[in-house]
Amino acid sequence: MAGLKRKCDQCDKPATHHSVEIVKGQKIEKHLCEEHAIQEGLAIKAVQTPINKLLTNFVKQQSLPSPQPEWVCDQCGMTFTEFREHSLLGCPECYRAFEEPLAPLLERAHEGETQHLGKVPHRVGEGEQRQQHLLRMRKRLEEAVACEDYELAARLRDDIQRLEGQGQVR
Fold first, then answer.
1. Domain extents for the chain?
2. What is the pLDDT of residues 102-119, one digit of tens each?
3. I need a labelling partner for 84 at 20 to 30 A (CA). Which of 38, 49, 126, 155 fits?
C-alpha cells in the first residue's frame, strides 16, 4: 500500500495527518483529514490572511490610539474613527474638529510643519515673500538648535540677521 494514498479513518477525504501511538504495547495508527485532525486536537486551523490585509491591520494598530471620547465633526457628523478608516475628511470643519489628533499626522506628513505655507503667488508683494522666507528660516533654526546642530544654527542666525537688515530675500 506504499503507492496508494490513504483516506481519512472517519470519512472518504484524503488523509493529511498520520500518527502512530503505542498504548499498552499495541500500535494504534490514525490517518485523518484536516477537518478531523483539528477536531481531535492533532492540528490547528490555519488562517490564510492576504498580505495586504495584514499590512492594513498593522498600520491601523501603529497609528494613533483610538481617542477617548470619540471626536465628532459638528458640521458633517464624521467621527475621527471614520477618518482613520477611510483617510478622507468629510468637510473643511473637520480640520478644526480633529485638530488635536490630526496634528501629529500632519507633522509627519509635512516634515514637522502643521501649517501649510504653500507657494506664494507672483502677485504678492516682495515683503510678504520675504516674511514667508524668514518664517521658514526661523523654523529651520529652531530645528537645528533642537538637534544640537550649532554650526547650521549659527549660519541660519547670520542669514536671518542679514535678511532682516537688507529688507530683501536672496
1. 7-46, 51-109, 126-166
2. 877 777 766 666 555 555
3. 49
